[in-house]
Amino acid sequence: MQINKWLSSYPKLVIFSFLCLIALSTFSLLLPFCTISHNISLIDALFTATSAACVTGLTVVDTGSYFSKPGQVVILLTIQVGGLGIITLANLILVFSGKSVPFRSKVGMYETFGFLRGMSPIDLVKKVAVITFLLEAAGAILLLPVFYARFYSLSDALYYAIFHSISAFCNAGFSLFSNSLIDYRTNIILNFTICSLIFLGGIGFTVILDVVKKPSLSKRKTLSLHSKISLITSISLILFGTCFFIFTEYSKAYQGKSIQEIILVSIFQSVTARTAGFNTIDLNILSNQSLLLIILLM
Question: Do the beta carbons of residue 145 and residue 54 sit within 8 Å?
Fold first, then answer.
């Protein structure tokens, strides 16, 4: 009875749901078939599960070589649920199963995504789901030929494309490559796709829904103050970070690199530093000034 009373608060319910997700993910990663000839410790499994659920991107073991396919799928599902939001996912299941969404969940949806005039909680849940899966699917399609050129296997390429698309949109930063995305630092398609997914996932559903909403018949389309601030600030920081990296590392870490590589690496690091966690250059070779900028962007 006390538990039900404690969970009557929406913020407490969110915290409890994340704890449950982390616990379930941790238990799953401890299963023998989730790792490749390794016995993962409880603390490593807990750390990985927490990082995936909270989409931080920090890892203590190499995701691609330490975990088997089932283990990687567990991490991917944890990222997706954590990035989308457990309460949102639960409401989505209720909506598509034909059941009504509880009032507390409706209030929570507005608290989470902000109030969008003229949009019911059910419409909000549907739009969040559609936007999420459309963008992740589009990202996977764009990444597919990039990874196919490496693996020459459609199934492997599709798996890597889906994993990195979801990880990028949810701003998780998990990669199946030991050196993150350094091997693709000159690949325009991958850089554009991953950066776009990170940016769209980072600005949030409230801004995306505000941008794509249809204007009313009596008024022209205008963005909310929140959306304007989010977009202007994000774009300004990306441009500032890009210019700073080029100026600071041109004669240092970027020495001997082509102009295209310098621009792509600078844009990518400026985008990923704020919310994601991927990298296309070894951070150990960057100057202290660039490392300080990454800290400030984060």
Answer: no
Residue with tokens 């600071």: 248
Q: Taking the CB of residue 197, how many other CB atoms lie within 10 A of it?
A: 27
pLDDT in tens, 230-275: 999 999 999 999 999 999 999 999 999 999 999 999 999 999 998 8
Token pair listed for 169? 């949109």
Tokens of 278: 């991927």
Contact 74, 47 (CB under 8 A): no
Helix axes 205-212, 103-113, angle to 10 degrees: 80
Cβ–Cβ < 8 Å for 260, 223 = no
Dihedral Cα 214, 218, 221, 226, nearest 10 deg: -100
Residue written as token pair 């549907």: 126
Q: Partners of 35 in the beta sheet?
A: 67
- Dist. CA 35–CA 20, nearest whole Å: 22
CA atoms of 29 and 35, how far apart (whole Å): 7
Across-strand partners of 67?
35
- Residue 67 in 3-state DSSP? strand
Distances from the Cα of 106 to the Cα of 8, 205, 224, 226, angstroms: 13, 16, 22, 21
* pLDDT digits 0-9 by tens, 210-227: 888 766 655 666 888 889
Integer Rg of the chain from CA: 20
How far apart, in whole angstroms, are the C-alpha atoms of residue 265 and residue 270?
8
Q: Return the DSSP state at 216.
A: P
